[in-house]
Amino acid sequence: MTRYAKIVCTLGPSSSDEQTIRKLVEAGMNVARLNFSHGTHESHLQLIQTIRRLSKEMKRPIAILQDLQGPKLRVGVLPDAGVELKPGMVVNLYAIEGGEPQKIQGEIYLPLDVPNLARAVKTGNRILLDDGHLELQVTAVQGDNVVTKVVLGGLLTSHKGVNLPGADLKIPIPTEKDIVDLQFGLQQGVDFVAISFVHTAAEIRTVRELIHKFLPDQKGPGIIAKLERPEAIHNLHEIMHETDGVMVARGDLGIETSPSLVPIIQKEIIHMANRHAKVVITATQMLDSMIHNPRPTRAEASDVANAIFDGTDAVMLSGETASGSYPVESVKMMDSIVREAEAHIEEWGHAVDFPKDSLQDDAIAMTRAARELAHDRKVAACAVLTQSGRTALLMSKARPRVTIMAFTPNENVYNLVNMYWGVTPVLIPFVDSLEEVIQSVDTVLQKEHKFKIGDQVILITGFPLPALHLPNLAMLHNIGEEAK
After folding, report:
1. Is 123 a residue of the active site?
2. Which of 158, 175, 302, 450 has the lowest tally of Cβ within 10 angstroms?
């Protein structure tokens, strides 16, 4: 049974060797995520080279997603034993940039690696530490010193994350580190770039301009906006128009807003992304318990299935594959849950459709018509000829209940479209006639994908060839039958 939704796996200490990456691909990994909050350019280069080598050897496309760190706010250096914070305790905060902790007798001073801290917060603001497990409330701002009271206590150790809901630190996105990392990723040919802590559509435009600057003669990777801040949700419509895809980054989103809002926001993001024909990835804690256990909780299985029913294009594993004890088992479990959910999509899934005003777009109208034809004729597959990947994306968003075979002569597109729901990429030589297209489709489908002579497929392409037209031709074709 074909799996339509894609699986994104974060690579890390538990999955950086060639043998494990091979097993992840065999288990169902479609996209490898490289988290640039960790590692060096050298270590990431080794991973990229391994992924590309295995992709060719196994004849399996693997898209690479470079995840830029963004402004990372962290606690500074604390004693090895940590600091115990108790409710009601007064705690002073001061901003550092990776320096030594400040110790003043009789007072608790916590160093935070947070630029512009005192200027960004005001009395009453919440400051969340360690993924929201600890909470402070600002009671006063005295020069560069921020006085807080502990609301939720616990043990705090060095370098834990910091969230400041509602505060504007005025840190430019992308950061200087992001720009250096982006240039490196572009040099290595990554397929997607994820931007962390997006606030506005202008930040997406900035990254796109940098891509054009670094790759003036190439299309460049797709841009994924990670939606982690309330400001991004307020600007969601504008962001959707600028980005190529979005990630429902539920970890920081749940801290910056409220865990009770995350399910609603998730549905809103997935719905809007599908209406705008943008890739959408649902991420964070999907099988979190499998970091330490060989099986997930029932709640986690339901969470993954509901993301599929909502219409997500891809589901993502983070710590489960990056640092967990069961990386390969996590992918196998994710694959199993997704397949079972998709077997019941007609009962519980939500219909995905384009907005009515998009019907004036010929390419969208063509893919919608192909979907209806596929359902009416019960065809074996939709075969799409694509030079840029856009036709494959639009066909994916039309959600036909058959496999979408994306035929392309472009190796970059071959990897890129492997992120798209329901799309199986196929690399073929460049062709310049309809007869050659049909011959290539027939040969590949029979030899590599076990289709039979007489199976019916829908062929979607721009015509006449070899001009780079948007799709304007959809034809029913019986495998093995000569073009007339």
Report:
1. no
2. 450
- Comparing CA positions, the residue from 277, 284, 298 lying closest to residue 395 is 277
Task: Name every residue whose Cβ is closer than 8 Å to that of residue 202 and which is 6 or more positions away in sequence.
Answer: none
170 is annotated as an active-site residue: no
Side-by-side strand order, sheet with 126-129: 74-75, 109-113, 90-95, 145-152, 134-142, 126-129, 162-163
Single out the catalytic residue among 33, 229, 371, 399.
Answer: 33
| Catalytic residue (choose from 22, 74, 119, 177) | 74
Active site annotation includes 226: yes
Which CATH number describes the domain made up of 74-163?
2.40.33.10
pTM of this structure: 0.92
Does 101 score more than 60 pLDDT?
A: no
Helix ranges, 215-261 (H): 230-234, 236-242, 250-256
Cα–Cα distance list, 149 to 134, 154, 180, 273 (Å): 11, 13, 38, 40
Assign a CATH topology to domain 356-478: Pyruvate Kinase; Chain: A, domain 1 (3.40.1380)
20 flagged as catalytic: no
Residues of the chain with CATH 2.40.33.10: 74-163
Q: Which of 7, 30, 2, 4 is nearest to 422 (CA)?
A: 4
| The two three-digit tokens of residue 474, written as one number | 């959809």
Over residues 326-375, the pLDDT tens digits come to 999 999 999 999 999 999 998 998 777 766 556 557 778 888 888 888 88
pLDDT digit string (tens) for 203-215? 999 999 999 999 9
Question: Which listed residue (243, 284, 403, 424) is catalytic?
Answer: 284
Q: What is the CATH superfamily name and number for domain 6-70+173-345?
A: Phosphoenolpyruvate-binding domains (3.20.20.60)
Q: Where, residue-wise, is CATH 3.20.20.60 in the chain?
A: 6-70+173-345
Residue limits of CATH 3.40.1380.20 in the chain: 356-478
| Residue 225 near residue 245, CB atoms below 8 Å | yes
Mutual orientation of helices 201-214 and 176-187 as an angle, nearest 10°? 50
